[in-house]
Amino acid sequence: MASLLAYEIVTKEYARVRIRIAFQPVERRFEVSNSAIAKDFAWIPDIATVFDPRASLYQTVDNYCRRNPDSSPDTVFQSLERLRQITNNQIGLIELDSQLDIETVTEIFIRVNSEGVTLNQADFAMSKIAVNETYDGTNLRKAIDYFCHLAVAPEFYSTLEKNDRDFAKTDYFAKMVWLKKQNDDLYNPSYPDMLRVAFTSQFRRGHLQDLVALLSGRNFETKDYEETIVQDTFTRLREGVMRFMSETHFSRFIMIIRSAGFVNASMIGSQNTLNFAYILYLILRHQKERDADIERYVRRWFVMSVLSERYSAGSAESKFDFDIRQIDAQGIAAYSDATIQGTLSEAYWDITLPQQLDRSASSPYFHVFLAAQVKLGDRAFLSQDISVRDLIEAKAHHVHHLFPRDYLKKNGLTRSEYNQIANYTIAQSEINIDISNKEPAVYFKELIEQCNGGPKRYGNITSMDVLRENFRMNCIPDGIECMTFSDYPAFLAERRKLMAHKIKAYFQTL
Predict the structure, then answer these.
(1) Strand intervals (E) in 257-296
(2) Using 50, 70 and 90 to split pLDDT, how confident is the model at 370?
(3) What is the mean pLDDT of residues 312-326?
(4) Burial 104-114 (b: 16+ CB within 10 A, else e)
(5) Sign of CA dihedral 32, 36, 39, 41
(6) Which residues contact 492 (CB under 8 A, 6 or more apart)?
(7) Long-range contacts of range 88-93, CB-CB < 8 Å, 24 or more positions apart?
(8) Of the given ranges (89-103, 281-295, 352-366, 436-450), which has the lowest mean pLDDT?
(9) How far apart are CA 45 and CA 35, in angstroms?
(10) At 315, is the pLDDT very low, low, confident or very high (cuts 50, 70, 90)?
């Protein structure tokens, strides 16, 4: 359609460009237009000129034949006439009964668009926003889209300012100008994330299908559709988006997450866990809670959600909806304390968490353990001065197998057995290389020799007191200097307990 009607499209860089399709009427061939075709008289370089309502087909044929004297006017005329008949081709159209409720319309929208790039409730909401000119839906949609793009690519700012001058004059643009200097990738929201946070924080609802209904004017009590509800929804959603984009809110929220030890995006496996934490932050800010209390509530709720994988399953929207309603009904203090006590009980720390640590390192529990080490200021395994935080922030850390991977593989263990959380620690790459595939009983004895005047083989630790402290920080069980392959299961069981105790101590500091 864009090529036939000379419409502009917007690229991934938000530049407005034309798609030009060329047509060779004698051979009846199409090509994407280029500079070579533009110089070739045998081609009509842009078929939009043929479909222009002001264009004369007779004049077009005459001009073509003047430039191509060997061509047959009848052949060219027939080709162009047939080309114009494209507008008579049927396009699939589903007309819905105006009496259908919004839930049915939403379901049809999602099912019809289930092929190719699958669309969802957020896409439907964005389309509802974009087409509403009465309440400036176009700019609201752009604000959501542009913010998410700038959060990932701050260098896009100048392109946006140049390519969309009208939007650059809006309050939305002024609210996101700070992103051009922002380079923190801890929280890079997509437009579904931004919609979810803005909507849930403003409307206290967790299901995006409710936003679609409200954008259509749905009165949930009377089941009618009212224009006043549409207006109110756009007003409140705009407020939510503006609060989401606030530099103060966004930056302070990121600061809180970092203060919990999550200093790198690779440590966060669930975007919805971040989304709800930001929702909680925005609500508490709006309720004018003390800054110190906001930080404590958000930190604790975020880490509890990571440990319990609260928003990682398919029912995340229902959990959002339930939690936000309970926070409103009970207050954050009562609901947060009760939920955390029920989820992270003594039985959880002593029994459940050690059992959950019986997984591979791709699970969230290893990330929480690393966050605990960052928060508690631990030094990396066998490092004298370099901390876990230093290595993670510099993206220079290496996950070291305490019982080396190749050593365990040679003894017949599978990937899931040697890639256990309890077999992992953070180390400098050079230390990991020096250890190679040595048995713990070998390289730990060499470490002890190093601390008793022997040659330096691994790092710079030369004191037994410092070495023991490093073992404590990294939850290394006693007696590891004597361990061989047969001790591996007992080593894992003991280290899981030590890691669980560290995570518990860490959580109590939040």
Answers:
(1) none
(2) very high
(3) 90
(4) ebbeebbeeee
(5) negative
(6) 358, 420, 422, 423
(7) none
(8) 89-103
(9) 9
(10) confident
- Side chain identity, residue 397: H
User: Phi and psi for 398 in degrees, rounded to 5?
Assistant: -130, 130
**Whole-number average pLDDT of the chain:** 92
Q: What are phi and psi of 411, to 5 degrees?
A: -95, 10
Check: CB of residue 236 under 8 Å from CB of residue 214.
no
Q: Assess contact for 359 and 421: CB atoms under 8 A.
A: yes
The pLDDT of residue 348 is: 96
Q: How far apart are CA 100 and CA 321, in angstroms?
A: 25
The pLDDT of residue 79 = 94
| Alpha carbon distance 366, 269 (integer Å) | 11
Nearest Cα neighbor of 196 from 232, 228, 244 is: 244
For residue 240, give both structure tokens.
């939510």
Q: How far apart are the first and last CA of the chain?
A: 56
453 φ/ψ sector (left φ>0, alpha ψ -120 to 50, else beta): left
- 361: pLDDT confidence band, cut at 50, 70 and 90? low
Cα–Cα distance measured from residue 202 to residue 204, given in angstroms and rounded to the nearest whole number: 6
Cα–Cα distance, 296 to 260 (Å, whole number): 10
CB of 502 closer than 8 Å to CB of 372: yes
* Distance in angstroms (rounded) separating the CA atoms of residues 425 and 474: 7
Q: Cα(489)–Cα(492) distance, rounded to whole angstroms?
A: 5
Round to whole Å and give the CA distance between 380 and 428.
7
Cα–Cα distance, 373 to 393 (Å, whole number): 13
Query: Has residue 92 got a pLDDT over 80?
Result: no
CA gap 499, 371 in Å, rounded: 12
- Per the listing, tokens 């997984």 go with 359
Beta carbons within 10 angstroms of residue 16's beta carbon: 11
SS3 call for 91: coil
Which pairs from 138-141 meet CB under 8 Å and 24+ separation?
139/167, 139/170, 139/172, 140/172, 140/234, 140/237, 140/238, 140/241
C-beta separation of 243 from 249 below 8 A: yes
Reading phi first (left if > 0) and then psi (alpha if -120 to 50, else beta), residue 379 is in beta
User: Contact at 8 Å (CB) between 395 and 360?
Assistant: no
Burial label for 248, CB within 10 Å (0-12, 13-18, 19+), is: exposed
Residue 76 and residue 24: Cα distance in Å, rounded? 9
- What residues have CB less than 8 Å from 427, skipping those under 6 apart? 380, 381, 382, 383, 397, 398, 399, 400
The helix-helix angle for 291-308 and 488-509 (nearest 10°) equals 160
